[in-house]
Amino acid sequence: MDVITLARMQFAITTVYHFFFVPLTLGLSIIVALMQTLYVRTNRDVYKQMTKFWGKLFVINFAMGVVTGIVQEFQFGMNWSEYSRFVGDIFGAPLAIEALMAFFLESTFLGLWLFGWDKLSKGVHLATIWLVAIASNLSALWILIANSFMQQPVGYVLNNGRAEMTSFSAVVFNPNIWTQFPHVIASGLSTAAFFVLGISAYHLLRPLANKDLFRRSFQIATVVGLLGVVGVVMSGHSQMQHLVGSQPMKVAAAEALWETEDPAGLSVLTIGNLQGEEVFSIRVPNLLSLLALDQVQGEIRGLNDLQAEFEARYGPGDYTPPVFITYWSFRSMVGAGVVMLLAVGYALLLTMGEQLEEKPKFLRAFIWLIPLPYIANTTGWFLTEFGRYPWIVYGLMKLESGVSISVSAGMVALTLIGFTLLYGALMAATIYLLAKYARLPGQPKLADEMAPGQTAVALIGE
User: Fold this and answer.
1) pLDDT band at residue 444, thresholds of 50, 70 and 90?
2) Cβ contacts of residue 227 below 8 Å, gap of 6+?
3) Number of alpha carbons in the 13 Å side-chain half-sphere of residue 197
4) Residue 445 is inside which H or E element, if any?
5) How far apart are CA 453 and CA 54, in angstroms?
6) Which of 165, 58, 144 is nearest to 102 (CA)?
7) Is 461 within 8 Å of 451 (Cβ atoms)?
8) Burial bucket for residue 206 (CB in 10 Å: 0-12, 13-18, 19+)
9) In terms of pTM, does the model score above 0.85?
10) Is the C-alpha dihedral spanning 370, 144, 181, 26 positive or negative?
11) What's the sign of the alpha-carbon dihedral 447, 450, 453, 457?
12) What DSSP character marks residue 101?
């Protein structure tokens, strides 16, 4: 393999691994803050136990997210130094603000929250977890501002082969951020909700678990999950409409739309080759125009026309994204979202009718649904990044121009193997820790459930 392919694989592996932890941190911080708010408002001990139980899992997940996120920033200097040289003046600013403001705030108040139980007043202690939740989501905002410049460059001028910032406000208020940020926040809420639903369902099926704690957790997660999934659908719709104008190649690749259509139909299933010849296709007439343009009539440009247009604008080359990956990533993401919407909607009906524990098969299904938002998050990221091909900065810099010129394929291959093995070990350790603490039944049934000699380690003051 050449150095570009290896560098892309390495960045993809480390990023996908890091992104396993980010959405859960974003959403679970809010859910834990909501649970503690209920404790402060009602003074009921079950909400305090609930906050501590889910807080332990939040802390484990947060710690792994921090560790894997640090490696990401080193990659820009290691394998993508030409890219860093090109956009360093712009890309560095939001990353620096994220580290100095959001991450510093998040880490500081997380420490106060962890060690502040029974030392701070209830109100002040509650404020610390809300500040953690706000800072976590602000951190995501600054990262996405940096990423948005790669998706839709604004507020810059090209000077001596580098992009230099001319307007900080234009970079911060990049139009891309208004569709991307809500989508990520809603995805985080959905991920955390299904995490809580699955683990709560596991405990509700056990005879000796603290039923009250997990029944209430399930109810809270059902409401948060429904709001999150609906938010994902609505923000995803806005994102698609924005992409029609800003990255039409991504939309066409996501639909395997080779020829321009007016009106355009939405592909339910398309099977063909990568030269645009369809063997089998099911399309819903007019639906793509309706979703993308809010009207049943309207042109959506196909890959062949866009390729000719891009060659005329940027010169000879292949500007078509990997259609197979983009097309199936989009369907995997949407398919997972539909199942999540149906599941959480039915859960709300059962919860409102107080029939939840009468449906053990349904509860058991939620344990197996925990990976679903992770599948949606990962394939959504594939769609976002593969659909931008061949650009590393859209319309300005191609992938081959961004890779480091001082590293060889052997060097990148060696670090790729190292990162893969290290991250594999970290993943195993993380799953072990999360599973261990998730299986603890919570107070006051803990002693009944534990095996002889087993001891629960308190991560949060207890």
Assistant:
1) very low
2) 186, 189
3) 34
4) none
5) 24
6) 144
7) no
8) middle
9) yes
10) positive
11) negative
12) I
